Amino acid sequence: MRMPIPEGATRESLMEIGLSRTTAWRALGRGWYVPNYHVRKVSPDSEKFDHRSAQSAALMVFYSLFLAWGSHKEDLVQEATCRIWEVSGVSTDFPFIFKVAHNAMRDYVARMRRFHGDI
Question: What is the pTM of this model?
Answer without folding.
Answer: 0.69
